[in-house]
Design brief:
Low-confidence stretches of chain B: none
Radius of gyration of chain B: 18 Å
Radius of gyration of chain A: 28 Å
Order of helices and strands of chain A: HHHHHHHHHHHHHHHHHHHHEEHHHHHHHH
Mean pLDDT of chain B: 91
Oligomer: heterodimer
Largest interface: A-B, 61 and 49 residues
Number of strands of chain B: 2
Number of domains of chain B: 1
Helix content of chain B: over 70%
Strand order of the largest sheet of chain B: 1-2
Number of strands of chain A: 2
Mean pLDDT of chain A: 88
Chain lengths: ~700, ~90
């Protein structure tokens, strides 16, 4: 009888979401027709923004609930397949959606660390955590730590670590929402942030996990359509084959050929030499700034005087000389800034980096350090993935252990659809840039360049450096985000698809922000308030506290995001290392080693997070300035690094230390009591007949 | 409750499978990653092999590992009488 209901529920969900997907496609087609009839891009942007947010709002309101289990774990009846979709949306953030393909475009093989790390982590989730956490069957991750190791100290350390890694992450998501809304509708960034905040709250406020789950499924559908459609189109255009993941090998070969040709092309070398000379000149001037400033100023003034005396000079030449005299740096400091910037042009003096080459470096030692850092980063991202509370929490929502196992498979499958497309997208866009844009004339640049440069000059800039009227690769600067944003236009699709991509990016950012906010608010309301402060609180009171906290956390996160904090990207990657070192050892040993005890867990978590954070303060310029007062412009010396590991992979030290401390301290202190032993047996077996432990 | 020998056997089998799959995961990610430069000298359908493994090959193997684990364990549950009763 009951199975029947679960089955019916699944059928019903399938029907709802099929209708929903059809409806969404219909909406896009309607907008496409409207565009042909003259609807302007600005209104298409608005239409997507408001239509999708109101859709999420409707789902959010329909899923409102006053039941604790519904609020925290969606009533534990989310089928594996749909939990997989929800996890996919929960997992893929604005950075995955918009930034990842761009990272691959710029970094080539090295960018694959993120692809590998953010998928391979699910193997760890499947093998070590998901089924056992589901069997445990409570509400949060600190909950498990608290029950397994006993006592409020472990629980508090867990709450602290959960908030630390989730908060930086949620700020980045809200920042992403602000950026996307402001780029596509032209509204101001600050307002965009609060529009986004509204979008996030309508999904989670009334219905908690239940509402977040069903909106995340809806958001997954939108984001995957928005990601795949332009790539498939581009693939057909370039390779005449609609499955880019199978066909981009051909494009990669062409790109490699072009890279070789561009490296030796005389015009390209000419542009690179201009950059090299400019950088060298700036470097020389920086050695004696005062003298160089005086000499430069005298030269500019003399040129202006000469040209004014010259009767044959055209008015344009006079105007140009006047302009360069007027824009001349006012003092040495300003000039120094300009020179420092010019010195940075040295980076553009290098020939293109071969896309598929692994671990480039100037000598064997540099190549080995690059390889070590690549593997360390992959490791930290994988273990971090298996330790982020907002992901692990999702496996509490399935009806059974069996479905939790299946659900990890579906999660990775849905994530995989996007992640194994991203490398193809990067190569296809590179192919288009290297073969069509490079070598074309400045007179007929494609339209997307001008339109995106107008939205944000850091996204794209193409300038004729050597004045030959032809585009050289060295003259093109592409920002990371432009790759995904401009794909529809590169593929020759109408603007409506660009709007769709924006809606996809928005869905990715909103869904991740929802999951994170709920994690933070639940850690506070369930673990701190209910479990530690007031265990007798009524259901109604618990839910009220949970909702109030959700609003408070959301408002704080949005306020931080509106300040446009610097180094937000570093903080996000740091979250993975911190989560990995803090949670992973305590969670896995808690399940697989009965002897692990309270003091081992407490000290192990603190040691793991501590060493990870300490290494970051040593090796990350911004944190170093904060803690030791060393100006961030001073480069980090290689001898300050341990084994040459970059700060982003600091978890490589914290994870083993965390394991070691738990093992050593546990062995030195008494074994956990019988009740804990029984709890471990309880989570290891999906069903123990006659077991006294509580049923799920 | 007291665990029977069969329960212990179930758990041993689970741990063994976990270790085997973890070893595959390790090889696919780290050993293949370590030798990416060498593998890149082999080209398959236009892709240098090292690059292909990082971009797609490993991902496919990850998905297969997880679904295989789920299938194997769900069967093992029934075999050893520890499957959840249908609710």
């Amino acid at each position: 009888m009951a199975t029947q209901t679960q089955k019916q529920f699944f059928q019903q969900l399938k029907k709802y979401y099929s209708v929903y997907t059809g409806g969404f496609i219909g909406f896009v087609i309607l907008l496409a027709i409207a565009e042909q009839m003259g609807l302007t891009p600005k209104y298409i942007g608005y239409a997507f923004l408001f239509a999708t947010i109101s859709l999420y709002a409707v789902i959010g309101i329909m899923s409102r609930t006053a039941d604790v289990s519904e609020y925290y774990v969606a009533g534990r009846r989310v089928p594996a397949f749909f939990n997989g979709m929800a996890t996919g949306a929960d997992w893929m953030s604005a950075a995955s959606f918009i930034g990842m393909a761009g990272g691959l475009y710029i970094q080539g093989y090295d960018g694959l660390a993120f692809i590998l790390g953010w998928t391979g982590g699910y193997v760890l989730v499947a093998l070590f955590l998901a089924p056992y956490l589901r069997k445990f069957g409570q509400f949060t991750i600190p909950d498990f730590l608290g029950e397994r190791y006993g006592g409020n100290i472990v629980r508090s350390v867990g709450v602290f670590a959960a908030i630390l890694c989730s908060f930086t992450y949620v700020v980045a998501q809200i920042y992403g929402v602000g950026l996307i809304t402001s780029r596509f509708t032209g509204i101001e960034f600050g307002i965009g942030v609060f529009v986004g905040l509204g979008g996030i709250l309508v999904c989670s406020f009334l219905g908690g996990m239940r509402a977040v789950t069903w909106t995340q499924v809806a958001q997954y559908v939108i984001l995957i359509i928005a990601y795949l459609l332009p790539v498939v189109w581009l693939s057909v255009k370039i390779t005449n084959f609609p499955i880019p993941q199978l066909s981009y090998g051909y494009a990669l070969q062409k790109v490699t050929e072009r890279e070789k040709a561009i490296t030796v092309d005389p015009k390209e070398i000419e542009v690179r030499t201009i950059f090299k000379d400019k950088a060298a000149a700036a470097d020389a001037k920086l050695k004696d700034p005062a003298a160089a400033y005086a000499a430069d100023k005298a030269a500019t003034d003399r040129k202006l005087a000469d040209i004014k005396k010259d009767k044959k000079a055209t008015p344009e030449a006079v105007a140009a000389a006047e302009k360069s005299a007027a824009s001349f740096p006012k003092d040495v400091d300003e000039a120094k800034k300009q020179w420092a910037k010019d010195k940075g042009l040295a980076a553009r003096a290098a020939p293109p980096r071969p896309h598929a080459e692994a671990f480039p470096g100037k000598d064997e030692a540099a190549k080995n350090t690059a390889r070590l850092n690549f593997l360390a980063l992959v490791f930290c991202l994988m273990v971090g993935t298996a330790a982020l509370p907002h992901i692990l929490m999702r496996y509490y929502t399935t009806p059974s252990v069996k479905e939790a196992r299946d659900s990890v498979g579906w999660s990775l499958f849905f994530i995989f659809l996007l992640y194994f497309t991203a490398p193809a997208l990067a190569v296809l866009v590179k192919f288009d840039v290297y073969t069509h844009l490079v070598g074309s004339s400045f007179a007929d640049l494609p339209r997307w360049i001008a339109s995106w440069a107008a939205v944000d000059p850091t996204l794209v800039s193409v300038k004729d450096i050597n004045g030959d009227g032809i585009v050289q690769l060295a003259e093109i600067v592409l920002g990371q985000d432009i790759i995904v944003l401009a794909t529809p236009e590169i593929a020759g699709l109408p603007y409506v698809v660009s709007g769709l991509v924006a809606a996809g990016g928005l869905a990715a950012a909103l869904s991740t922000a929802d999951g994170l906010l709920l994690t933070i608010a639940n850690a506070l309301s369930h673990d701190v308030y209910y479990k530690m402060l007031d265990p007798h609180a009524s259901t109604q009171r618990r839910l009220t506290v949970a909702k109030v906290l959700l609003l408070v956390v959301a408002a704080i996160a949005a306020t931080v995001a509106a300040q446009k904090p610097a180094d937000i990207l570093f903080l996000v990657s740091a979250a993975f290392s911190l989560a990995a070192a803090g949670f992973f050892p305590a969670l896995t040993l808690g399940i697989f080693w009965k002897r692990a005890n309270k003091w081992g867990a407490i000290l192990g978590m603190l040691a793991g997070v501590g060493i990870t954070f300490y290494y970051m303060t040593l090796s990350q310029p911004w944190l170093r300035e904060l803690f030791y007062g060393i100006a961030r412009s001073v480069p980090v010396k290689p001898e300050d690094l341990w084994f040459g590991i970059s700060p982003i992979s600091a978890g490589i030290f914290g994870i083993p230390l965390g394991f070691a401390v738990i093992v050593i301290v546990s062995l030195l202190t008494p074994a956990p009591d019988k009740k804990v032993q029984e709890l471990i047996e309880h989570v290891r077996y999906p069903h123990l007949k006659g077991s006294a432990a509580r049923s799920s | 409750m007291q665990l029977t020998e069969r329960h212990r056997e179930y758990w041993r089998k689970n741990v063994r499978l976990t270790v085997i799959l973890l070893a595959i995961w390790f090889i696919v990610t780290y050993v293949v990653g370590f030798y990416a430069r060498e593998l890149n000298t082999i080209t398959l359908f236009g892709w240098p092999l090292g690059f292909y493994m990082g971009a797609q090959g490993s991902l496919i193997i990850f998905v297969v590992i997880i679904f295989y684990y789920a299938r194997y364990m769900n069967k093992l549950d029934i075999e050893y009488g520890v499957a959840e009763e249908d609710k």
